[in-house]
């Protein structure tokens, strides 16, 4: 079964028709010339087509999207936010499952079909948050591909039983093992990272580590991550999220970026407004995979985030100071194909200036945006979207199909 999307403009280029099967783009044809017998026809209405968004760093278990606005009550530091979340998550107006399912629905309607969500496992919540995220994934299994990270937000060794809980989460369906700030949360970076990588070896899974630690401390933790990646032959299986330590334009940071490229350790960023922006152009030029994410959304940590990856793409472009069209396009490339290449290491790495993801053989994962051009779409963030997953429309104009 094929789908023919007529009258679309890949990356804002000339109008064409695109033929999809459930796996990939199988033909790009002049308007009106694609074979339509036995095909589902979708009128693209002149929209810009780009690869679907990949939200590669989100927390579906903690969002409060769709619920009454709730001001932050935690103190600014990380551990205070962790404990404030712990004190309040149970009293949310909706269950973790309902909140995660709704947040995933919003991501899909805004054009994301690839998501990597962390699911917190800790001594307080046990596996309840993981189960909510897994249930959301199941509900939307025909609309998006979702990876789940078993995420020990409060550290692995501060409280008893968390390592066993993390292992259980991996048994129950989490795809990757997480970690967080090896020096400042567990305050024992070697033990923390040895545990993370031991779990990865035991379960044959990838690793995705939150690294908020700044400057020299973060670079030290990063060196322990690269050391283990190299020693265990895990090149291509590791992701570092945030990596604020790379925001400093130092020789040490640039050397670390080159080592990430060598070991195919990917990065995710949420385009933060503080902590300094990552040098995206240098990271891409070095050959490091990088994708964009929403992180928390209207949760106990942050009042920001709305589920719209095009909105977050604007934020990436804004915080990078982009004004020229090729740079705006590149922000969209990070948010779409860049994240795809983080999740699927068989996918090609980004090249600045290229507009990836819409050639014959590329995945049948698209978002259609009602905009003059790709760059104008980033700036205007128009509401009219069509989301295509596995070659069929799964959401249109804000509604699931
Ligand atoms: Zn996070």
TrEMBL record:
Q: What is the name listed in the Swiss-Prot or TrEMBL entry for this protein?
A: Amidohydrolase family protein
Q: Which residues form the Amidohydrolase domain?
A: 41-395
């Amino acid at each position: 079964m094929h789908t023919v999307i007529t009258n679309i403009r890949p990356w804002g280029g000339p109008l064409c028709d695109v033929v999809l099967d459930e796996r990939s783009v199988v033909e790009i044809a002049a308007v009106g010339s694609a074979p339509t017998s036995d095909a589902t026809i979708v009128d693209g209405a002149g929209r810009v087509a780009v690869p679907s968004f990949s939200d590669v760093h989100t927390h579906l278990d903690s969002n409060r999207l769709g619920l009454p606005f709730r001001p932050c009550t935690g103190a600014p530091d990380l551990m205070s936010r962790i404990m404030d979340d712990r004190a309040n998550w149970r009293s949310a107006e909706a269950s973790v499952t309902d909140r995660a399912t709704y947040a995933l629905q919003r991501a899909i309607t805004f054009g994301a079909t690839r998501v990597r969500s962390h699911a917190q496992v800790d001594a307080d919540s046990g596996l309840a948050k993981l189960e909510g995220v897994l249930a959301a994934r199941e509900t939307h299994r025909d609309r998006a591909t979702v990876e789940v990270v078993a995420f020990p937000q409060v550290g692995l060794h501060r409280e008893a039983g968390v390592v066993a809980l993390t292992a259980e989460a991996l048994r129950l369906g989490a795809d990757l093992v997480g970690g967080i700030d090896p020096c400042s949360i567990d305050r024992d970076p070697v033990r923390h990272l040895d545990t993370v990588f031991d779990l990865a070896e035991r379960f044959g899974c990838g690793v995705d580590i939150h690294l908020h630690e700044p400057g020299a401390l973060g670079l030290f933790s990063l060196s322990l991550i690269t050391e283990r990646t190299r020693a265990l032959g895990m090149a291509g299986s590791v992701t570092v999220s945030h990596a604020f330590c790379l925001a400093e334009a130092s020789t040490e940071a640039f050397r670390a970026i080159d080592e990430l490229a060598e070991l195919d350790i990917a990065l995710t960023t949420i385009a933060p407004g503080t902590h300094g922006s990552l040098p995206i152009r240098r990271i891409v030029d070095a050959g490091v995979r990088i994708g964009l994410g929403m992180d928390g959304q209207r949760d106990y940590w942050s009042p920001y985030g709305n589920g719209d990856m095009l909105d977050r793409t604007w934020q990436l472009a804004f915080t990078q100071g982009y004004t020229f069209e090729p740079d705006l396009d590149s922000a969209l490339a990070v948010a779409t194909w860049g994240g795809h290449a983080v999740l699927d290491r068989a996918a090609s790495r980004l090249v600045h200036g290229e507009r990836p993801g819409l050639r014959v053989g590329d995945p049948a994962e698209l978002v259609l945006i009602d905009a003059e051009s790709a760059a104008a779409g980033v700036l205007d963030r128009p509401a009219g979207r069509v989301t295509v997953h596995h070659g069929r429309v799964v959401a249109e104009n804000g509604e699931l199909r």
